[in-house]
Design goal:
The chain is α+β, with helices and mostly antiparallel strands. It contains 3 helices and 9 strands, in the order H-E-E-E-E-E-E-E-E-H-H-E.
Length: 174
Protein backbone atom coordinates (compact mmCIF):
# COMPACT_ATOMS: atom_id res chain seq x y z
CA UNK A 1 0.00 0.00 0.00
CA UNK A 2 2.86 2.40 0.82
CA UNK A 3 4.42 1.72 -2.59
CA UNK A 4 1.11 2.58 -4.23
CA UNK A 5 0.83 5.88 -2.32
CA UNK A 6 4.44 6.76 -3.14
CA UNK A 7 3.69 6.07 -6.81
CA UNK A 8 0.65 8.37 -6.69
CA UNK A 9 2.80 11.18 -5.26
CA UNK A 10 5.68 10.81 -7.75
CA UNK A 11 3.63 10.59 -10.97
CA UNK A 12 1.99 14.06 -10.60
CA UNK A 13 5.35 15.65 -9.75
CA UNK A 14 7.01 14.13 -12.83
CA UNK A 15 4.04 15.15 -14.99
CA UNK A 16 4.09 18.76 -13.76
CA UNK A 17 7.84 19.20 -14.13
CA UNK A 18 7.78 17.71 -17.62
CA UNK A 19 5.40 20.40 -18.91
CA UNK A 20 7.28 23.46 -17.66
CA UNK A 21 8.07 25.11 -21.05
CA UNK A 22 4.71 24.68 -22.76
CA UNK A 23 3.86 28.38 -22.26
CA UNK A 24 6.01 29.63 -25.15
CA UNK A 25 4.25 29.22 -28.50
CA UNK A 26 6.03 27.56 -31.38
CA UNK A 27 6.71 30.19 -34.09
CA UNK A 28 4.52 29.88 -37.17
CA UNK A 29 5.96 29.83 -40.69
CA UNK A 30 5.31 33.55 -41.19
CA UNK A 31 7.56 34.56 -38.32
CA UNK A 32 10.91 35.69 -39.66
CA UNK A 33 12.57 38.18 -41.97
CA UNK A 34 11.27 38.35 -45.54
CA UNK A 35 12.88 40.14 -48.49
CA UNK A 36 10.85 41.26 -51.51
CA UNK A 37 12.14 39.64 -54.70
CA UNK A 38 9.59 41.06 -57.13
CA UNK A 39 5.95 41.15 -58.16
CA UNK A 40 3.53 38.96 -60.11
CA UNK A 41 0.37 40.11 -61.86
CA UNK A 42 -2.74 38.05 -61.12
CA UNK A 43 -6.54 38.01 -61.58
CA UNK A 44 -6.59 40.22 -64.65
CA UNK A 45 -9.85 41.08 -66.42
CA UNK A 46 -10.87 39.84 -69.86
CA UNK A 47 -8.73 41.28 -72.62
CA UNK A 48 -5.64 41.45 -70.39
CA UNK A 49 -5.07 37.73 -69.68
CA UNK A 50 -1.71 37.89 -71.47
CA UNK A 51 -0.27 39.59 -68.37
CA UNK A 52 -1.39 36.79 -66.00
CA UNK A 53 1.60 35.51 -64.02
CA UNK A 54 4.02 38.06 -65.50
CA UNK A 55 6.92 38.53 -63.10
CA UNK A 56 8.36 41.98 -62.51
CA UNK A 57 11.54 42.99 -60.70
CA UNK A 58 11.36 44.96 -57.47
CA UNK A 59 12.21 48.20 -59.28
CA UNK A 60 9.81 47.65 -62.21
CA UNK A 61 6.85 49.45 -60.63
CA UNK A 62 6.63 52.89 -59.11
CA UNK A 63 4.43 53.87 -56.20
CA UNK A 64 3.80 57.59 -56.14
CA UNK A 65 6.60 57.96 -58.68
CA UNK A 66 9.07 56.02 -56.52
CA UNK A 67 10.51 52.54 -57.15
CA UNK A 68 11.75 50.40 -54.27
CA UNK A 69 15.45 49.45 -54.10
CA UNK A 70 14.78 46.98 -51.30
CA UNK A 71 11.84 45.99 -49.11
CA UNK A 72 12.25 43.89 -45.98
CA UNK A 73 9.43 42.75 -43.70
CA UNK A 74 10.14 41.19 -40.31
CA UNK A 75 7.20 39.46 -38.63
CA UNK A 76 8.04 38.84 -34.99
CA UNK A 77 6.69 36.09 -32.72
CA UNK A 78 5.27 38.68 -30.29
CA UNK A 79 2.88 39.99 -33.00
CA UNK A 80 4.91 43.08 -33.86
CA UNK A 81 6.53 43.82 -37.21
CA UNK A 82 9.18 46.05 -38.73
CA UNK A 83 9.12 46.98 -42.40
CA UNK A 84 12.11 48.69 -44.02
CA UNK A 85 11.84 50.13 -47.51
CA UNK A 86 14.91 51.57 -49.19
CA UNK A 87 14.43 54.13 -51.94
CA UNK A 88 17.60 55.71 -53.29
CA UNK A 89 19.56 57.09 -50.37
CA UNK A 90 16.58 57.10 -48.01
CA UNK A 91 15.29 54.33 -45.76
CA UNK A 92 11.76 54.29 -44.42
CA UNK A 93 11.17 52.12 -41.36
CA UNK A 94 7.61 51.31 -40.35
CA UNK A 95 6.59 49.43 -37.20
CA UNK A 96 3.35 48.08 -35.83
CA UNK A 97 1.51 44.86 -35.13
CA UNK A 98 0.52 42.00 -37.40
CA UNK A 99 -2.05 39.23 -37.35
CA UNK A 100 -2.93 36.34 -39.63
CA UNK A 101 -6.50 35.06 -39.84
CA UNK A 102 -6.79 32.17 -42.31
CA UNK A 103 -5.33 33.70 -45.50
CA UNK A 104 -5.67 37.34 -44.45
CA UNK A 105 -2.58 39.16 -43.19
CA UNK A 106 -3.21 42.46 -41.41
CA UNK A 107 -0.43 44.95 -40.77
CA UNK A 108 -1.50 47.67 -38.34
CA UNK A 109 1.10 50.40 -38.70
CA UNK A 110 1.85 52.74 -35.81
CA UNK A 111 2.06 55.56 -38.38
CA UNK A 112 -0.13 54.65 -41.37
CA UNK A 113 -3.01 52.57 -39.98
CA UNK A 114 -4.28 49.16 -41.03
CA UNK A 115 -3.40 47.40 -44.28
CA UNK A 116 -4.85 44.01 -45.28
CA UNK A 117 -3.27 41.48 -47.65
CA UNK A 118 -4.31 38.10 -49.02
CA UNK A 119 -1.73 35.38 -48.41
CA UNK A 120 -1.16 33.59 -51.72
CA UNK A 121 1.79 31.32 -50.86
CA UNK A 122 3.06 30.53 -47.38
CA UNK A 123 5.38 27.54 -47.47
CA UNK A 124 9.03 26.64 -47.64
CA UNK A 125 11.01 29.86 -48.12
CA UNK A 126 8.16 31.72 -49.85
CA UNK A 127 5.74 34.24 -48.41
CA UNK A 128 3.61 35.81 -51.13
CA UNK A 129 0.94 38.37 -50.31
CA UNK A 130 -1.34 40.32 -52.64
CA UNK A 131 -3.55 43.37 -52.81
CA UNK A 132 -5.82 44.68 -55.54
CA UNK A 133 -4.45 47.69 -57.41
CA UNK A 134 -5.22 49.75 -60.50
CA UNK A 135 -2.55 49.61 -63.17
CA UNK A 136 -2.30 51.07 -66.67
CA UNK A 137 -1.83 48.32 -69.26
CA UNK A 138 -2.20 47.81 -72.99
CA UNK A 139 -4.98 45.39 -74.01
CA UNK A 140 -3.75 41.99 -75.25
CA UNK A 141 -4.55 42.83 -78.88
CA UNK A 142 -2.00 45.67 -78.97
CA UNK A 143 1.29 44.44 -80.41
CA UNK A 144 4.79 45.84 -80.18
CA UNK A 145 4.76 46.33 -83.95
CA UNK A 146 1.73 48.62 -83.58
CA UNK A 147 3.36 50.57 -80.77
CA UNK A 148 6.50 51.10 -82.86
CA UNK A 149 4.46 53.03 -85.45
CA UNK A 150 2.54 55.29 -83.04
CA UNK A 151 3.28 58.67 -81.51
CA UNK A 152 3.58 59.05 -77.74
CA UNK A 153 0.11 60.59 -77.62
CA UNK A 154 -1.40 57.65 -79.53
CA UNK A 155 0.40 55.16 -77.30
CA UNK A 156 -0.91 56.87 -74.15
CA UNK A 157 -4.44 56.73 -75.58
CA UNK A 158 -4.21 52.91 -75.80
CA UNK A 159 -3.35 52.45 -72.11
CA UNK A 160 -6.31 51.31 -70.02
CA UNK A 161 -6.63 51.32 -66.24
CA UNK A 162 -7.43 47.82 -64.98
CA UNK A 163 -7.91 46.36 -61.51
CA UNK A 164 -5.78 43.31 -60.76
CA UNK A 165 -4.05 41.62 -57.85
CA UNK A 166 -0.42 42.59 -57.37
CA UNK A 167 1.43 39.75 -55.66
CA UNK A 168 4.45 40.71 -53.57
CA UNK A 169 6.83 37.73 -53.76
CA UNK A 170 8.97 37.55 -50.58
CA UNK A 171 11.73 35.03 -49.89
CA UNK A 172 12.99 34.19 -46.42
CA UNK A 173 16.12 36.21 -45.68
CA UNK A 174 18.98 34.31 -44.05
Amino acid sequence: MKKYLLYLLIVPIVYLTGCGNDDEPEPTHEVGVWELQGYLLSNLPAGFEGYEGVQLGIDALTFGGVAFDSYTLELKIDGSYEREIEVGLADDVDTGTWSLDDDELTLDSDEFGEDTWEVVDNEDDDFWISQPINLGLFPDEVTQEQLDTLSEEEINALVQQVTLDLVYAFDRKD
